């Protein structure tokens, strides 16, 4: 994975025609065997990612781990660092597809690794016992590395991927996957609380929270405008709907690479029709915040215009 990350950065720099060589103080290339010395992964990380960025912290940790591997404790290290390694892979996939497009995704090549032993209490105890065999040197290293790192970074799945396994329920379709990934940010507050209360020893299987792309009970912009206008004193048009989703960043702009990444309480991507639909919650929000002229202007950016009495 470290080589993969290194080559990814190199490929990005080559495409952007940017240099990635170490230079001497005199302005000449630092050379090895007559060839310019290229940056190592740690140098790319420092140049490309900000100091407190979660992905950078994960990379810095795994680079350090690679340099401290003790083969006597290989199995214990594997168990203790599995979450960091999984994040390393997921972060790589995210950057790879962001920089070079979805055609380069590894999704069809890699499968999600799971410690099957944790599906039983006996297996979980076995892994816990194995982890306890980790050398003091390695335990101290992990503790010292995370000292001073913001708690929000340590708890971020991009730093350490901790898995809860929850058996899938409900009817099964032909397109159903045995294991699917749900983004933490897509969970409701109640769902997050439920997962956080499962505890570190809980047995889990990830259940996909499928993004809603069906049209039932959803409205097109014109219908939204009409539904809002009949409940307020002012004219409300599609341009007002547009300004609201732009200001609140409820959906990506047109031709975005990830059109389905919406704030689903208010807006849903309709994949079959390649457009966006809005929820009743969006209508309620607009009505609530457009009851007087000042609020209307704050919400839409336009001056309120009274409706003509019929």
Question: What would your notes on this structure say?
Answer:
The chain is mainly α and 310 residues long. It folds into 3 domains: 2-162, no CATH class; 164-210, no CATH class; 221-300, no CATH class. Helix content is 43%, strand content 4%. It is built from 13 helices and 4 strands. It has helices at residues 2-15, 41-48, 54-66, 74-80, 82-100, 121-132, 136-146, 151-154, 189-196, 221-229, 238-248, 280-288, 293-300; strands at residues 31-32, 35-36, 267-270, 275-278. The strands form 2 sheets. A two-stranded antiparallel sheet has the order 1-2. A two-stranded antiparallel ribbon has the order 3-4. Helix 1 (2-15) runs parallel beside helix 5 (82-100), helix 2 (41-48) runs antiparallel to helix 3 and helix 10 packs across helix 12 (280-288). The model is unreliable at 114-119 and 200-214 (pLDDT under 50).
């Amino acid at each position: 994975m470290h080589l993969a990350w290194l080559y990814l950065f190199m490929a990005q720099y080559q495409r952007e025609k940017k240099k990635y060589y170490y230079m001497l103080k005199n302005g000449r290339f630092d050379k090895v065997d007559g060839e310019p010395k290229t940056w190592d992964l740690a140098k790319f990380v420092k140049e490309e990612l900000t100091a407190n960025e979660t992905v950078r912290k994960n990379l810095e940790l795994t680079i350090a781990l690679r340099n401290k591997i003790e083969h006597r404790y290989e199995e214990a290290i594997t168990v203790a660092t599995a979450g960091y390694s999984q994040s390393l892979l997921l972060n790589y996939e995210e950057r790879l597809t962001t920089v070079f497009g979805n055609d380069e995704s590894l999704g069809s090549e890699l499968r999600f690794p799971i410690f099957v032993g944790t599906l039983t209490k006996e297996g979980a105890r076995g892994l816990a016992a194995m982890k306890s065999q980790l050398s003091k040197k390695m335990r101290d290293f992990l503790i010292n590395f995370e000292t001073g790192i913001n708690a929000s970074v340590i708890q971020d799945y991009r730093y350490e991927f901790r898995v809860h396994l929850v058996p899938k329920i409900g009817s099964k379709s032909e397109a159903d996957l045995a294991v699917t990934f749900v983004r933490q940010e897509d969970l409701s507050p109640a769902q997050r609380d439920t997962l956080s209360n499962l505890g570190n020893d809980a047995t889990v299987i990830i259940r996909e929270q499928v993004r809603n792309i069906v049209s039932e009970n959803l409205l097109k912009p014109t219908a939204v405008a009409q539904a809002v206008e009949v409940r307020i004193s002012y004219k409300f048009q599609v341009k007002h709907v547009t300004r609201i989703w732009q200001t609140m960043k409820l959906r990506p702009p047109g031709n975005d690479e990830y059109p389905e990444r919406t704030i689903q309480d208010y807006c849903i991507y309709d994949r079959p029709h390649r457009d966006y639909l809005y929820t009743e919650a969006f209508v309620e929000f607009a009505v609530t915040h457009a009851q007087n002229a000042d609020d209307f202007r704050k919400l839409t950016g336009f001056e309120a215009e009274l409706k003509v009495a019929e």
